[in-house]
Amino acid sequence: MSSGLYEGVIDFALSEAEKKSEYAEVYIEDDKAFSFAIEQGRLNGSASSEKVGLRIRIISNGCLYTVSTNNLEKGNIEKLISRFRKFKGKKTALSEEKSVSASYVVKEKKAVDEESMLKALVSVDKGIAEAKHIAFRGVYGSFDVSDTYFANSDGSKVHGRVPIISAFVNF
Fold first, then answer.
1. For position 146, what pLDDT does the model report?
2. What pLDDT, on the 0 to 100 scale, is given for residue 6?
3. For residue 162, what are the CA distances in angstroms to 3, 34, 57, 77, 144?
4. Residue 26: which pLDDT band, with cuts at 50, 70 and 90?
5. Is 159 exposed, middle or buried, given 0-12, 13-18 or 19+ CB atoms closer than 10 A?
6. In this predicted model, what pLDDT tens digit does every residue of 101-118 receive, in sequence order?
7. Which residues, listed in sequence order, are joined to residue 47 by a DSSP beta bridge?
8. Per the CB 3.0–4.6 Å rule, which of 23, 113, 137, 155 could disulfide with 59?
9. Does residue 1 surpass a pLDDT of 60?
10. What angle do helix axes 74-82 and 4-18 make, rounded to 10 degrees?
């Protein structure tokens, strides 16, 4: 996934937040996942999800304000930022730091998709089934990719992408 996908949202939210503050930062996380459960050789469940969330933090008059949403529409972002003053802020101060621009991407050694995940889990289940003395067997696996984007009013921009694969066997 390209960080350009959310660049417009980040730029808009940051620009709006800067109008109300001495400091502003915007953080977006986009998470996509799928998982499978195989029990006793049968597909017992599968799930797929996609979650996107936005967090905006500002410092205004020495107070920190934070708001989060999963609605990335411009009108909603404007409304959230206009309401910052209605919340009780927490007195805070930041250290002086240099701005950074960075990208960290953890690359998969092997591409994982739904079909390859399911085939691997079925293969493990068949191997366990050969042990005749096992009364119950369950094989579970999931794959998740988390893309994060951060920008602040000091000029920092960071993008990260981390894939996570997990599996476990119950018998």
1. 94
2. 85
3. 13, 15, 24, 26, 8
4. very high
5. buried
6. 999 999 988 888 999 999
7. 35
8. 23
9. no
10. 30
Q: Could you give the C-alpha distances from 124 to 45, 53, 60, 117, 159, in angstroms and in order? A: 16, 35, 56, 11, 35
Task: Give me the residue label for tokens 């992408």.
Answer: 161
Cβ atoms 30, 2 nearer than 8 A? no
Phi/psi of residue 129, each to 5°?
-60, -25
For residues 24 and 10, the answer to whether their CB atoms sit within 8 Å is no
What does the chain come to in residues?
171
Beta strands in 61-156, from DSSP E residues, in sequence order: 63-69, 90-91, 101-105, 138-152
Decide: 44 and 37 in contact? Cβ < 8 Å: yes
Integer Cα distance of 124 and 118 in angstroms: 10
Q: What is the DSSP letter of 100?
A: -
Token reading at 110 = 């092997």
Query: Which tokens sit at 140?
Result: 């579970």
Strands laid side by side in the 23-39 sheet: 90-91, 63-69, 42-60, 23-39, 138-152, 157-170, 101-105
